[in-house]
Amino acid sequence: MRHATSEDLGAIDGLVSSLRELAGLTEKRPGVFYRRSKAFLHFHAHDGDLFADVRTDPGKDFERRRVTTKAEQRRLLAEIRRSLAPSAP
After folding, report:
1. CB-based contacts of 75, cutoff 8 Å, min separation 6
2. Residue 88 confidence (pLDDT)
3. What is the mean pLDDT of the chain?
4. E strand or H helix that includes residue 36
5. Contacts of 33 (CB under 8 A, 6+ apart)
6. Which of 69-75's residues contact partners 24+ apart within 8 Å by CB, and which partners?
7. Which pLDDT tens digit goes with each residue over 69-86?
8. I need a labelling partner for 14 at 20 to 30 A (CA). Which of 29, 37, 42, 69 fits?
9. pTM of the entire structure?
10. How far is CA 28 from CA 31, 49, 87, in A?
């Protein structure tokens, strides 16, 4: 498993572009996102598949999600949007 290259990120450009538009995330390097001052998401490639390591729960470690298909990308984006939504009082 290796960190995703710019070529790898090109294969998931729609997902990365959507992440760039989300309030609360900052892209420190291409494909590496932070929430506040803490690492939140980055990508890996392995055997032709792409994966996102994401920390949707601030108190937990990264969890790996496959994001090779459009459906997997949509699921991840929905999960991230839920984790960034303000909590109800």
Report:
1. 65
2. 47
3. 94
4. none
5. 19, 25, 26, 27, 39, 40, 41, 42
6. 70/14, 73/12, 73/14, 73/15
7. 999 999 999 999 999 988
8. 37
9. 0.91
10. 8, 23, 26
